[in-house]
Structure formats: structure tokens, C-alpha cells
Amino acid sequence: MIDFTFTEEQEMFRKAAREFAETQVASYVDEMEKTGEVSDAVVKALGEAEMMAITIPEEYGGLGLGYTERLIAVEEISRVSVATGMMLQVFALGIEPIVKFGSEELKKKYLPGLARGERLSTTAVTEATGGSDPTGIRSSYKKEGDDFILNGRKCFITNSHIADTITVLAKDEENPKAFCAFVLDKDMDGWKATHKEHKVGMRGCNTGELAFENCRIPATQMLGEEGKGLRVTMAAIGDVGRGGMVGVALGLQTACLEESIKFANERILYGKPIAALQTIQNKLADLKIDLEAGQLLGYRAAAIQDKGQRSSNEFAVAKYYTTEACQRAAKMAVDIHGGYGCMEEYAVSRFLRDSYVVGPSAGTSDIMKVIIGRWVLS
Amino acid sequence: MGTDHRAVWVIAEQINCHLQSVSLQLIGQARKLADQLGTLVEAILLGDKIEQPARQLIAAGADRVYLGNAPELEVYQPELYTQIAVNLASEQQPEIILIGSTDMGRELAPLVAAHLKTGLTAHCIDFVLDKELILEQRIPAYGGLLSIVCPEKRPQMATAAKGVFATPEPDDSRTGEIVLIDIPTDLPGRVKTLEIIREEPQGVPLETASTIVAGGAGAGDIDGWKDICELAAVLNAALGSTRPAVDEGWAELETMIGQSGKMVSPEVYIGVGLSGEQQHMVGIVGARVMVAINNDDKSPIFEQVDYGIVDDCRKFLPALIEQIKQYEEKKNTCE
Amino acid sequence: MLNIVVCVKAVPDPKEACNIKIDPDTKTLLRCDVPLVLNPLDKHAMEAALQLKAQFEARISVLSMGPPEAGNIVKECLALGADQGYLLSDPAFGGADAYATAFTLAKGIRKIGSFDVIFCGMASSDGSTEWVGPEIATFLGLPVVTLVKKIVECKGASWIVKASVENGYRLAQVKLPAVFTVTRELNTPRTLSFSGIIKARKKDIDHWSLDELGVSSESVGLKGSPTIVSELNAQEENKRQVEILTGTREEKTDMLVQKLVEAGVI
């Protein structure tokens, strides 16, 4: 049979992540909600707590842990702050391509700083014309001697304004089937973050646009082989991106359930806490069922990923299920809170707004179904 | 007097030549027990220039006071105090030793007990002799009352907090013996008290307050705790706390009410965000009116008060404070 | 090299401890699956040791007596930064009072062998006796300072510490080796870190049973405890007439203000 228990060490990682989130992140949530800006203090704390280092190999200053541990961390942090969980999950999207496809030189150059949180990362694939279907992107490169010249724009990029180490996907100007992935860093000229988005939720997590104008990139900054850049970014988004969203969604589901239980025990109606009402118990049961199911799907996919096997389809299922479930959970949590759920001082109103941003991140539910459909037909 | 049983002892404590009230209260308990056992009440008192407090112990019910009266005993010195008590107890073999749960008592009692190879029960709220005249030392625990006994080892040792027991009326006509004791000189000198600094407490002292607002873990966080502090302020009440609130770091240890904290007897007690755990509740001795505000209608606090309000204290308190302020304002304008 | 021993205890999670009740019929404890956690005050004892280790060359041994599950909290201390763990676990150790606990821990410390400083939390959240630290000191023939809230001087073999006394402090001078019981005011404990957990993989926990400790079963556990629980009584019936004030929040504040006026508070 299959053993569904976490190891003692994994339980301790969860405890550590939870303690971190509750002591170092929770107190900044209000500020992030108010300003909509990334909290420098939270970023610094994430770095000090080695949250960016989880999946970076030990020889490059990381912790060399697996995807299950990463899922635990993202889940626990998102339970307290979805915005922070999202920020963390996307740091990994910038890190993963370097770990998987970077040259020794690139790894040595970037990974230790990324592990310490001194460098912040993201990955930039999405454009107005393509994201989940990256072949639709228009950003292009051309070769000039040993360098590449990059032009184009990227949109909806998480961590766009805080990242200083970015994995960018672009198309060969002359060959629409050839793609390259490059690592850009702040020291290079010719690229900048432009527009900042104002999202309905995940306030405190930065999303925006990047512009590249004759950005000169030395060939040494290329990830993987020339022309095979799609593989590089797909590896990051498919498994790691979806996996991260599963963590974000599970954290939010847990938060919805916990706040609902708390409120249902406190709110008195007909002389009793509303938790005594079957209609409320029914909702709490639904929340629990979705959470249990989501955890099984998510951690199973992570276990497959940790074995070094392809897990993007399993993560597509888990991503679909949990991000849909977190939207259901947030609505139910708001419903349980009644009128209070509409008030900003109640966390569930934030959960509702956050849940709607979790949905399309790293691919909408419809895209997940397209992927799952292809999987079953293949 | 009967000699079946050896004496009942109290290790008394003085600060700046003033007896701690708990020492007198324990003399009262020792008297009760000694009378039942048909034996003597004896006290140890250590300090400098303390003949007067020694006589107070006799007036309260002691038959004999072993008095260590010397400059080097002025403040608590762990080695000296322990050695004196251990030497005397080994020699005299008392049946029972009671010690106040003061900061000194809480260190001295286990040192003496371990040296005498006997048991020690913490923070008792009642002492009763059973059929075999063994001391039942009662402590609150797990929503009930535990009786602890030390059946084989002697002396039977226990501590109790200030305010648990009544202070006996002094009877200045009582006579007793004051035995001056020798001060040991052959100590290793590995630990010594350099100085003890005490400051006047701030705010309304808990022990004498007529109104107490006590808060617990239900405050949720430091902001919730501030509301509880504000309620205490608007009611001109002393602020009390439970152990979880102290553990969270919201409240000072000095504000803790209960078995291992302070015993209080206010006119009015208002418990906010606390479940009514017995370790806390035993600290409220005979409050006239008790009020509880807590969100969990099943918590035991709602079985122990006069008025209960089931609500989230974080939402209820701001409303209540506002209401009280309005009331005071109205009253002032009417006057 | 400063050898530090930190004594820790696995206690029922204080956040859920109110769920532990006495069964009024059987007079036994109903534990309701309350999980075991590191005693909150022992975290301050650990932190004290870790802060010393940051200043001096030091080795931290963490010692606990308890059921095999208590191994988790020893592991947690290793993840926090202790170097070696010891768990004294044997059915014979069960039912120990403070005296037998201190006796057994003192034997464990003797077996560890090198100790300059022994830290304990001032009390455990479930027992609240405060006796274990000073009794360990007595069994080891060491000096002790309880309720330490500040370490003022710790450079040489003679330390100066501030101990908590009501409304003030006691300044005490102690020669090492010595036992210190610590209060919450001493420090702010660090939280677990991922790299700490990873480093703990390479750290061992020695499990010592009665035989390995080389003591007689008569001197430990229930048998070695001078005190025993003779009776466990459920709470007495409350004599107050409880009135729950109900209504909207406004109605409730109105009623309560009225009651407080009647009581003479306002």
C-alpha cells in the first residue's frame, strides 16, 4: 500500500514554516492590503528564513530539499498571506530554470544569491498574445556576434518590479519555431519594469510589465540549447508553477476553513453558536472535503515530482481542483460570515478577492482542462 | 502536649524586617494542623534585627521560633538559608514544613526538600489531615481538585501562595520560646545574593484592588490585549492575567492570578477572553460579583460567574468601553 | 569549551490543555488526544544556551525524560541548534513526581558527564511546580539560581545573573558549574529554521533506559516519588446563579454597564 504520512522531518518543516508565517508575515498583511505594495520586511524575512533556498542544491548554497517541502512551505505561508505565498512561489519559477538548465557558470553566478534572498527572481513568458500557449509570444531575439539582442514586452509578470534576475523567453526573429530562454539581471541595459498592475486581490504581491529594447545578452546567459528555450520555461511553469499554485490554493483553503470554524463557534444565533446549525456544518464539511481531496492530489503530484518523474499532468489536475476549490471555499467562508464577510476587517473578504486571482495564475482552469483533455487522449 | 507527632513547621520570611503576610497565614494553618496532631507549631525566621517579627509569629500561633538573627542573614542567601533549615530539620525531625510560595520560598523549598530527601507539593489551596493523620495537600488541576500525600517520607512539605488562607488575629498575650540558632560558617560559597532591589509597584495593586479585569488567551493578540488594558483603565481596575497571557508575552508575570500566581479577593471580577481554567479561578477568592466575557459558550467560566456574555471580546470590548465612557460622560454632565 | 545541558519536557499543548478533564466517574484523566509539544518555558532555556553558543565555544546537550514520543521535542531542540540529544525513556520512569524526575534527570546529567551550565525552564506548563531545577542542583551538589531573567556577566567561571523577585530583581553571583531556571523575560526564543532541521539529520539522540542509567527501579518513577496523588476529585458544584446576558451587542453592553453600575464599579 501507499504510505500517505509525512515524515517526521516534513512535519517539522511544516511547523517551522507555520511559525515563520505567523511570527514574521502575519503582522504585515494589513500593511500589504492597504498599500498594495510588496513589503520589504517580508521579503527580507523570507530570505533570512531560507524560503527561497528550499529547492536550490546544497552546493549552490541552497537547502537541497524536494518539491514536497516546497509545497509545504508555500501552503503554510499562503495560509497566512496568499500574496506572500504567491511571491515565494514565483521566486521558484525564476530559480528552477537556472537549476535545471543553467550552465555551471550561471549556477555559480546566481544561485547562491538567490538562495540567500539577496537576489530576487521571476520568469517572464506571458505576453498579450501568449502565455499558456507560449508559441504565441512576440518578443524576439536576433544574434549579433556572440550576443543576442532582445526586443519585446511581457505582461502579468509576478515580481516584475522587485526581481533582479529574470528568465525570459523569446522567439527567433527569423525562425518562429525557435525559442531561447535567457537569464537577465539588473546590471544589463535595455530592459526595465514599466506598468504596475492593481489586482483585486493578492495585494502586496507585485505584478507588472517588462519592456526589452535592444537588450544585449551575452550568449553565456542562455539557458539550455539555442532554439530549445520552450522546454526550459515549460519545465518551470508546468511542474513548478502549477505545483506552487496548488500550495497557494491549499493554504487559502485551510485559512477559509479555519476562519469559518472560528466564526461559526463565535457567532451566536438563536442562543447558540451557528456551528450548531446543520446548514453551517454542511458548509464546513464541504470545506473539509475539498481540502482533504486537494491535499491528496497536490502532495501526490509533488511525490511524483520528487521521484524525478514528469508530474505536469498530475499537477494540472491538482491545480484545477485546488484553485477551483479555493474559490468555492472563499465564497463559503464569506457566506458563513454573513454580513460580516462583506467587511474588510474580516479576513474572509480578503480571501474572496485573493481566490479570484489564484484562479488564472499559472494557467486558467480552462487551460488546465485542455491539458488534462490532451493527457487522457494521448 | 502530645508527643506522638513531631512539630509542624513554617519557614517564615521577612523583607526589610517586615513579615510576609503568607508566613502569618501559614502559621494559622500550622496551628490548625498542630492542634489536631497534638503537637507544637514552630517557625524558622532568618534575617537581621528581627526580634519584633519573631514575636509576631508567636502572637499568630507559633510555640517556638528558631531565630537566625545576624547581618549576613539580612537578605535571602541560598546556601546559608538552605543549610540552616536543613540542619535544623535533620535535628528536630518536624512532621510538616509549610513555606510561602514567594520568590524566595519557591527556590528555598525545593532545595530543603531535596536535601531532606522528601516530597514537596506546590501551591496548595487547602491542608487537611486524613484518617491516619497524613497531610492531604490539595491543589487544583484539570478542572478538579487533586489531593497529594507524602505517605512515607518526612517531613511532609508544601508551599502555598499569599492570600489563600486567612491571616490569624494576633494574640499578643501568647507566649512562646525564641531559640537563637548558630550560623553555619563552613559553606562552599558558590552562590550568593549580591543585592535585592524592589520597586514600588505601578498602577492599582491586584491584592487590594476592589475591581479586577483579568484577560486570557482569548485576547488573540497584543491589540486585543490592549483593549483589555483599556477596559481596566476606564474602570480604574487592577489588571490581572492568566498563564497563557503571560506566556504570550502580553502580560507581566506579576499580574498572573491563580494557583502559581496571585490570590485576589476583589469586590468585582471581570474575566475577559479566558476559559475559566481552575488554575486561574482558584486565585479569585470570594469575589462578590463575577462577570465573564468569552466567545465559547461551552467554556467552564460560564459556570462560575454571576453574569456571562458570549461574544468575541475583540469586538465586544470596544463597544463596552465606548458605552462606559458615554455613561460616565452623561453622569458627569448631569452632576 | 562550555558544556551546556538543557533540560526540556514534552507537555500537552497548552493551547489545548483546557480539553484535559477529570472523568467524574472513574476519576481518571481524559486527555482527549492533546498533542505533546516543547514546554514553552523550555524554549527560553534552549535560547539561553544558543545565545551562549553564539558567544563562546560551547556544546549543547539537550536532555528530556518522557515517553518515546518525547523524542520529537528533543529532535526539535536539535533542529534549533543543540548538538546532542538524550532521552531518558523507560516504563519505570512513569508517574514520577518532581523529586523522582529531578533524581532521574540528575542521573542522566551525570552520565552525560561534562556540564558547566544547566538550564531549565522555571516551570512546566502542565506541572507548574518549579521544583525540578533546584532539585537537580541539589542531587548534583551544584548551586542554583531560579527565575533568571537576565544574564549580566558570563565571561569567566563566576557568573552574575538577575533573578526575578516580586516588583524587582535579585542580583546573584554563582560559580560554575551551576543550574539556572529561566523565565520568559530572559530572551525571545528563535523559531525553527529549515536549515536547522536539515542539520539535525546528522545529530543523534541517545535513548537511555533504566538499565543504561544504572539506577534501581525503586528510586525512579512512581516508586521513587515521595508524593502521590491520593485522590482526584471533579470540581465542586458552583454556587453562583449564572445569568447569561443575551441580545444584540448593543443590548449586551447596555445590560453589562447596568450590572456594573449596580455593583458600584461605574
Compose a concise summary of this entry.
The complex is a heterotrimer of chains A (378), B (335) and C (266). Chain A contains 11 helices and 10 strands. Chain A is of the alpha+beta class and 378 residues long.
Descriptive account of the structure:
The complex is a heterotrimer of chains A (378), B (335) and C (266). With 378 residues, chain A is an alpha+beta fold. Chain A folds into 3 domains: 8-120, Acyl-CoA dehydrogenase/oxidase, N-terminal domain (Butyryl-Coa Dehydrogenase, subunit A, domain 1); 122-227, Butyryl-CoA Dehydrogenase, subunit A, domain 2; 231-377, Butyryl-CoA Dehydrogenase, subunit A, domain 3 (Up-down Bundle), CATH 1.20.140. Chain A is 53% helix and 16% strand. Chain A is globular and about 80 Å long. The relative contact order of chain A is 0.12. Chain B folds into 2 domains: 8-180, HUPs (Rossmann fold, 3-Layer(aba) Sandwich), CATH 3.40.50.620; 206-334, 3-Layer(aba) Sandwich (Rossmann fold). Chain B has helices at residues 21-37, 51-60, 78-92, 103-115, 222-234, 243-248, 278-281, 313-334, and strands spanning 8-11, 14-15, 18-19, 41-47, 64-69, 96-100, 120-124, 126-129, 135-141, 144-149, 156-160, 177-180, 191-198, 211-215, 238-241, 268-272, 289-294, 307-310. In chain B, α7 (278-281) links the parallel β16 (268-272) and β17 (289-294). In chain B, α3 (78-92) crosses α4 (103-115) and α5 packs parallel to α8. Chain B starts with 7 loop residues before the first strand and ends with a helix. Chain C is built from 7 helices and 15 strands. Chain C has a 9-stranded mixed beta sheet with strand order 11-10-9-12-8-1-6-7-13, with helices on both faces. In chain C, α3 (98-112) crosses α4. Chains in contact: A-B, A-C, B-C. At the B-C interface, α4, β7, β10, β13 and α6 of B face β3, α3, α4, β9 and β10 of C.
Count of runs of 4 or more consecutive helical residues of chain C: 7
User: Pairing-aware structural class of the strands and helices of chain C?
Assistant: alpha/beta
- What would you call the shape of chain C? globular
The sequence of SSEs of chain C as H and E is: EEEEEHEHEHEHEEEEHEHEEH
CATH superfamily of the largest domain in chain B: HUPs
Oligomer: heterotrimer
Work out the count of structural domains of chain C: 1
- Give the total of beta strands of chain C: 15
| Strand proportion of chain C | 25-35%
Distance between the termini of chain B: 65 Å
What is the residue-mean pLDDT of chain C, rounded to a whole number?
A: 90
Radius of gyration of chain C: 22 Å
CATH architecture level-2 label of chain C: 3-Layer(aba) Sandwich
Beta content of chain B comes to 25-35%
Percentage of helical residues of chain C? Answer: 25-40%
Low-confidence stretches of chain B: none
